[in-house]
Amino acid sequence: MSEFKPTLRCTCDGSGMREVICYDAAPEGETKFDLGDQVYNRRYDQCKMCGHFFGRHNLDLSALYNDEYVTSTYGGIDGMQERLDKIQRLPADQSDNGARVERVVKFVEERGLLTPSPPRLLDVGAGIGVFPSSMKTRGWDVTAVEPDLRTVEHLRENVGVTAFAEDLFDLDADHIGVFEAVSFNKVLEHVEDPVGLLMKGTSFLADQGFMYVELPDVSAMAEGPSREEFFIEHHHVFSLASFDLLVEHAGLRLVRLERFREPSTKYTIAGFVMRKGDIS
């Protein structure tokens, strides 16, 4: 086992880490990704100071989101459309996304934000387009970022939003513009340095803009290590304290923080984030 430790730029020196989960096989329900001849062996260490879970392993997952994730999870563009249709047919009280949209709309209304018409949203790691589709219906001009070309084709053709098949770090505001909102819905846990990605997101914010962030919650551990919050694609699982650290280390201001159980049963932490100089 390597000393691979995805970073939160944690303020502890590493001496406060303890191993909390160790896997030598994929837990039930985890997507069966093609890892080649790599031996499945991974673990989570937890910081005793902030409660954050850090993934540790020596598996090469570098190509996961360029091809394997879409192939293993959806089977291709047709599978993405089928999944999108299924989610959109869910009753309101069974929809994670429906609650998410209402959360964002309520935040905007309460604070009297967003003067442009239509307001612009940049959704990073948009997946099959559930959130972009709903926000488009609410009158937003949506741009999506995804690494897989098939996902981008689906977002453009089936969801009808602007989409880029590029790493966010390869884009800039001169290229795609600025946005009243930037969203990271269950995205930052998939990268080794979530602080850096969150900081990059601020470069696309318009004046008085905000970011909406959803992350998996370590509270899921109450039901054991087979929960989806701890699946292989998650380098991080967050606590309330580590969410706060994430925002602080990115040089931003946490405006609202919530912890809840979604209709899908996911344990989730969500927050609204703004620049320190902006008025909320």
Please outline what is shown here.
The chain has 280 residues and is of the alpha/beta class.
Written description of the protein model:
It contains 8 helices and 11 strands. The protein is globular, with a radius of gyration of 18 Å. The strands form 2 sheets. The chain has a 7-stranded mixed beta sheet with strand order 6-5-4-7-8-11-10, sandwiched between helices. Helix content is 27%, strand content 25%. The protein has helices spanning 68-73, 77-88, 96-111, 130-137, 149-159, 173-176, 194-202, 240-249, and strands at residues 17-23, 42-47, 53-57, 120-124, 141-145, 162-164, 179-185, 205-216, 236-237, 252-261, 267-275. Strand 4, helix 4 (130-137) and strand 5 form a beta-alpha-beta unit.
Distance between the termini: 45 Å
CATH class category: Alpha Beta
Class from helix and strand fractions: alpha/beta
| Helical residues, percent | 25-40%
Throw out a few tags for this protein.
single chain, 280 residues, alpha/beta, Rossmann fold, seven-stranded mixed beta sheet, four-stranded antiparallel beta sheet, 11 strands, 27% helix
Layout of helices and strands, plus pairs?
Layout: E1 17-23, E2 42-47, E3 53-57, H1 68-73, H2 77-88, H3 96-111, E4 120-124, H4 130-137, E5 141-145, H5 149-159, E6 162-164, H6 173-176, E7 179-185, H7 194-202, E8 205-216, E9 236-237, H8 240-249, E10 252-261, E11 267-275
Parallel strand pairs: 4-5, 4-7, 5-6, 7-8
Antiparallel strand pairs: 1-2, 2-3, 3-9, 8-11, 10-11
